Amino acid sequence: MTVSRRLFAGQLLAAGSTALYGRYVEPLWFDLTFTRIRLPGAPVRRILHISDLHVGDGTPAAALTQAVVMGLATRPDVICLTGDFVSSTIGFDTPALRRILRLCADTAPSLAVMGNHDGGAWLRRHGAHGTSRIIRDLVQESGVEVLHNASTAVAGLRFTGVADLWSGEFRPEQAFFPDRGPNILLCHNPDGKDRLRGYPWDLMLSGHTHGGQVRLGLVPAVWAPVRDRRYLAGLHEWEGRQLFITRGAGSPKHLRFGCRPEVSVLEIAG
How far is Cα 157 from Cα 24, in angstroms, rounded to an integer? Predict the structure, then answer.
């Protein structure tokens, strides 16, 4: 074999190995992360933050369950689920999603908001339901409190949740009410921060970006369905407030590279 042929064969083998890794290894290699967040006035609490399960699209339900159980083992005080429970409101694995949600609800007080894949105007354009009611009802019936433009107090903390930014159901004016304590905001899409600038919140928890899902060195993220690409994953300061964006537990189309699926544990302290 000539040098050029050997080089081509080596490149072909490397490309094939990379593709196999991105499809069959990394989507199942869950990263349990711990992040300390200072929130003046807040009690010491542990929050389990999970997003973008996308049940029925890519990652097997058994693997997603394993990832959630890994997070539950950290004994959180509160569990926050920030949307995209499914990829479509039609044809998803309903029993699997119910089991995962019940595991959460049976472990600690659990709160949720919807994502763009959970129903609404955006999903209607992609051939599924134009309302998030179906997924909201399923989540609520499974024991998880849905904060659909609403607020609540749990474990000494104030939580506010808003509908997805693209759903046509986004009504922040209905969600907030005056409160002197620190407020943790659940908002699936981190771009929502700009629409929520005038409201009283201190820390926003989001998903949606999948961390970019495919990251190739310095090349811009392949999956980044946001306008503001500065905030794709992790903890960030923004105009005197804080954002935390998790990379998500699911991997739509069963694909990840350089961006492991994440189960996020947040250590809150005043």
Answer: 39
Domain that holds residue 126: 3-269
Domain count, the chain: 1
pTM (2 decimals)?
Answer: 0.92
On the 0-12 / 13-18 / 19+ scale of CB atoms within 10 A, 106 is: exposed
* Counts for the chain of helices (H) and strands (E), in that order: 7, 12
Q: Tens of pLDDT along 74-132?
A: 999 999 999 999 999 999 999 999 999 999 999 999 999 999 999 999 999 999 999 99
Q: How far apart are CA 96 and CA 93, in angstroms?
A: 6
Enter the tokens of residue 36.
């300390």
Sheet-wide strand order for 150-154: 150-154, 157-161, 183-186, 203-206, 241-245, 234-238
* Domain of residue 145, CATH code: 3.60.21
Q: Which of 27, 70, 23, 58 is nearest to 260 (CA)?
A: 27
**Nearest Cα residue to 58 out of 252, 256, 257:** 252
